[in-house]
Amino acid sequence: MVHIPEAIKEKARAVKLVVFDVDGVLTDGTLTYSADGEQVKHFNVKDGVGIKLLREFDILPAIISAKSSAPLSKRASDLGIVHFYPGCHDKWAQLSTLLDDLWLSPEQVCYVGDDVIDLKVMRQVGLSIAPADGYWLVREHADLITDSAGGRGVAREVADVILASRMPLAEAYIKAMLPEFEQSSEVRDS
C-alpha cells in the first residue's frame, strides 16, 4: 500500500481487534483434497509475520470462518490465535459475543472478508477490508481494498495499515527483526 487515506488511518488507530475470514483472505480460496480425501490449504508466511506483529503491539488477532479443517486449526495454533472460531455460520453473532467478552465496541474492530457471508459484519465494524480479488459486492462495501489477492499477503497489508496509523512502519518492524520474534507464537489474551 503506497498511500493510506487519512480517514482510513483514523479508523485504523481505533482498532484493538482484527478479525480475519480464512478462505479467500488467508488462503486463495482454492480447496485441494489429497487422494485419501484430506483437505490441504496453503497459507502465506508473510501473513504470519503481520499477525504476530499485531500481537506485539497489543492488537488482538481473531479468526471467524464458516469452514473448519485440520490445516486451519494447525495454522491458528501455530500463530497463537486465541480467538479462533471455525465452522461459524453467523459471524456477527460470534463477533458480538467476543466483543462483550473483551469489552470492545464494533468501532474498535477491523474485519477482513472476501464474500457475501462477510457483509453483515463488515457493515457494522469500524474498519472493513477486502482483498483485491474479493467478490465485487464485498469490495464495494469495504472501507479499503488491499493490493494483494487472497492468500497472497492480505493479512500482512492489513497489519501494515493498522501499524502505520500509529507509528512509522520501520519502527514497528524493528520487533520483527529480533531473533526471538520467530519463536514468538506464545498465546496472549488481553
UniProtKB/TrEMBL annotation:
Documented EC number(s): 3.1.3.45
Keywords, sorted A to Z: Hydrolase, Lipopolysaccharide biosynthesis, Magnesium, Metal-binding
Enzyme class, broadest EC rank: hydrolase
Residue stretches spanning the membrane: none
Residues that coordinate or bind Mg(2+): D21, D114
Catalytic reaction annotation: 3-deoxy-alpha-D-manno-2-octulosonate-8-phosphate + H2O = 3-deoxy-alpha-D-manno-oct-2-ulosonate + phosphate
One MF annotation (Gene Ontology) recorded for this entry: 3-deoxy-manno-octulosonate-8-phosphatase activity
Subunit structure and binding partners: Homotetramer.
Protein name as it appears in the record: 3-deoxy-D-manno-octulosonate 8-phosphate phosphatase KdsC
Originating organism: Bacterioplanes sanyensis
